[in-house]
Automatic annotation (TrEMBL):
Coiled coil: none annotated. Residues 129-167 form the Peripheral subunit-binding (PSBD) domain. Belongs to the 2-oxoacid dehydrogenase family. GO terms for cellular component: cytoplasm. Keywords: Acyltransferase, Lipoyl, Transferase. One of its GO terms (molecular function) is lipoic acid binding. Its EC number is 2.3.1.-. It comes from the Bacteria. Forms a 24-polypeptide structural core with octahedral symmetry. The pyruvate dehydrogenase complex catalyzes the overall conversion of pyruvate to acetyl-CoA and CO(2). It contains multiple copies of three enzymatic components: pyruvate dehydrogenase (E1), dihydrolipoamide acetyltransferase (E2) and lipoamide dehydrogenase (E3). SUPFAM superfamilies: CoA-dependent acyltransferases (SSF52777), Peripheral subunit-binding domain of 2-oxo acid dehydrogenase complex (SSF47005), Single hybrid motif (SSF51230). This is Dihydrolipoamide acetyltransferase component of pyruvate dehydrogenase complex.
Amino acid sequence: MIGGESPDVGDVRLDIDVIEVLIQTGDMVEKEQTLAVLETDKASMDLPSTDAGIVKDVFVKVGDKVSEGALIISLEVQSAESPVAAVKQQEKTAAPVSSSAPTSAPVKQSVAASNSNVAVVSQSGKSAHASPSVRLFARELGVDISQITQGSGRKGRILKDDVKNFIKQVMTSGAPLQGGAGIPPIPAVDFSKFGEIEEQKLSKIQRLTGQNLSRVWLNLPLVTYHDEADISEMEAFRKALNVDKSTEIKVTGLIFIVKALVAVMQHFPKINSSLSPDGESLILKKYFNVGIAVDTPNGLVVPVLKGVDKKGIAELTRDLSELSEKARNGKLLPADMRGGCITISSLGGIGGKAFTPIVNAPEVAILGGPLK
């Protein structure tokens, strides 16, 4: 039998957090397999097994705090050598030290926890590899790394990209999250304890919008740029157009923004593109359709103005008015909300100067501002 003890972590000698226990009584473990993960305020460290054998007892659980030298597990080794051996870890930067003492003497071994690759057992029963930094990254995102059965690194090592791709797969497939994978849920609260409440069911549009925005937030690296523009001349021209009593069309500033945005897209074609599904190329679009985010009683919808580059101010104003009316009355057809190249999200009557809208993927950009 051998005992696994908590490591020497330098200046921090007390209250080392046990954040993962990867084995249980009766498990067969291999040499160098990670038994538990410990964490201080400075580092995350893996506690590997120095021998192959059967776990007889586990003396800690997740959430425990242990001190240096505390007993973690007892292991029945598979050989007739040393009847009793103490296993410790030196400081994480020390190199492994082989013992030259008799087999009955204690054995001291160190682990370079910050850079070593450690084995974890996946649900398929195969051993996958991940560095402590990747394991920490997965924990921060709420991912059970044992569910990632194969990594893309050398010899199947799990990389950060593998963790990200696993989250994308879960989000897009709609599969239930198991074993703690995915984003940790927000704790449930009984609000009725604090006063009167009313519960309203979300509409289908609201539910789908929430799922889509969450998926985009996880998939895309979002960058926001704020700037201001002097539109005094544009506004004067718009008012002059609306003075004409011969037409019922009331031109809004938003239509001018739509036309200006298309001009920018024509000058910078990559704005009017989407990434191919395999991530190997850009799909450049030769058409110019602009989605307009519209807030309705049932939720946010994005009808699309088609062929903006081929239409004038008056025609676009009529199109936008018709689409907005259909959106408010819940009469938009699926075709009315497809084919967008870029989206405009306006603060409208809310006011304010700037905000950060979420990109309407697979589009690559979105324009937001106090547009009316």
